[in-house]
Amino acid sequence: MEIRLEGITKRFPGRSKKSQGETTAVRDLTVQVPDGTLVGLLGPSGCGKSTTLNMICGLEAPTEGRIFFGDEDVTDLPPELRGVGMVFQNYALYPHLTVLQNILFPLENLKGEQRPSKEEMRRRAVETAALVQIEELLDRKPRELSGGQQQRVAIARALVKTPRVLLLDEPLSNLDARLRLQTREEICRIQKKTGITTIFVTHDQEEAMSISDRIVVMKEGVLMQRGLPQQVYDDPANLFVAKFLGLPPINVFQGRIQGGWLCLEGTPVLPAPGVADQEVWAGVRPEGFLLREDGPLVCALDRVEVLGRDVSAVCAHPACQSGQVRVILDPDCRMESGRKMVNFALRPDKVFLFRREDGVRIPLPEAGP
Amino acid sequence: MNRNETKAWLYLLPATLLLAAFLVYPLIDVLIYSVEEGYNFTSQTYWGVGGYNYLYVLHDPYFLQALKNTLILVAITVPVSTCLALAISTALSSIRPLRQLFQTVYFLPYVTNTLAVGLVFMALFQKTEYTDGLVNLLINWFGGQSVDFIDGPYWAKMFVLCFYTVWTVMPFKILVLTSALASVNPDYYRAARVDGTSRTRIFFRITLPLIAPMIVYLVITGFIGAFKAYSDAVALFGTDLNAAGMNTIVGYVYDMLYGDSGGYPSYASAAAIILFVIVLTITCINLLVSRRQLEN
Description:
The structure holds two protein chains of two kinds. By secondary structure, chain A is of the alpha+beta class. Chain A has helices at residues 49-57, 79-82, 99-108, 118-131, 147-159, 177-194, 205-211, 229-234, 239-244, and strands at 3-12, 23-33, 38-42, 64-69, 72-73, 84-87, 165-169, 197-202, 214-219, 222-227, 251-258, 261-264, 267-271, 278-284, 289-291, 297-306, 311-316, 325-329, 341-346, 351-355, 361-362. Chain A contains nine helices and 21 strands. Chain B has helices spanning 3-35, 52-59, 61-94, 99-111, 114-125, 134-141, 154-182, 186-194, 199-227, 231-237, 241-244, 249-258, 265-295; strands at 36-37, 48-49. Chain B has a two-stranded antiparallel ribbon. The longest helix of chain B is centred in the N-terminal third of the chain and has 34 residues, at 61-94. Chain B is globular and about 75 Å long. Classes of the chains: A alpha+beta, B mainly alpha.
């Protein structure tokens, strides 16, 4: 089921009498989610991503704008008529019911002709449990399950009515690091197997990048960028997106365009033909540095961290915004540890220029490899 | 016993002594009194040990009346007050405006003196030379006959006593239940809404099981409290409860000790022990039933 949000705005009234102002959680959001895809809604906390999820679910009504599932306008429909399944951040499993009873619960709410027979309900519940691989846990209570198992039960409960859309609110935030890796692959597998259009909310860029078909990046209720994960990473629309995606994070330098060159601390480091002279932010991905004896970018070497797969060098450069430049190098390039200064050349496709005043990306006419 | 353990017992000693002197000793004393036959209060003598006191009490029509009154009171007020408190607190937690006001109003009886409330109930129910009481005025208004609620038929007096008891025990129950309802994680309700659960089903399948431990607590303490009823009856019908036919077990114990027919600590002790056995049995049944309920 394709989902379209058209100009969604959500305003909450001021909480107390003192602060009369409204809070705008989501501002004029227009997003399209293609049928059968897994989409990650990504942003820092408080960016309105959970509110957006709640509006798609029907738990909250948008102040303005329309929501479409396919051609059907569902904006005014209650959640149960939209055909959505929702997995809550804390799973919200009913603690007094067994796993089987929890999964049966949505089916038992059905009325009239929609209501399947007892055997049919049980068959579907067991089938869904098998899909998420919890068949042997059906008689347990939620408190007897691990976090990962609870998560599976919550997914099974959301899937048992075969919803048109599956919504997951921070599905991995309550799990430890190892389970997180496992569960995110599990979510990906279940989504591919069922083919249900799935939207999940996360503040962890790695999570979103790793399993999503598309990602949507939001900040303070405003859409920043959407697209394929790799495409958003390689071609960020603004400084916020560039900084939010990628680990280790992008290195941001205070720079200046002069005579078609990007200059850091007055030294030209990279040609920027066709860009007007101005103050800029220059973002360089950690993998965008090349060790060259004659490289124009000179940094003071702080330390070298060998991580096996690659070598990470921590350097200092006076123009760097955070004071620390983190560089990822090929392990083959032998770096002598006694050195005080290192010279780098920059890979043009890993360097992004942003306007100093608002952080909007400045396109390079012949950027890219 | 190492030094630390000695120290621990030393720290516990004051509390243990106080408990022993004022709780354990009297309990044992009551038990002893209850089996001493023909105990004389003035000479402090008795002529035998046996179950006569129990037999006497169990054949005393005043005690049987008190037992009947207490059982009726318990059977009516505990379920009624618990259900009513549940209904009111559910209503309270689903409204936004004026909630604070209503909470205060419902809590007022809890901080009001029993005897003062008794006076108000007099004004509502008692017949005097000048007026038949507010409730009778209402009954007359709808074309009914006046009923004497204080000195009249048994059912009318029992109705007033139950009404009064329910009214005084409700505030605490409402207080406990509203906080229990408020502590239910709203995500359960949101999850139920996504699944299109009806309001009644949400209440019976989600809310009620989640606050069940609190309800069990209220029922058990409610039973114990109702079995120990005394001051409510005094506030309504005066101290001569036997004459009014509205005595309770605790009232009977008191009368046996200090009333006009008083001076029989043996009978009083026997009655107290009988009450204790009843309350203990009921509480055990309650615990067993509720534990089984909570497990399912």
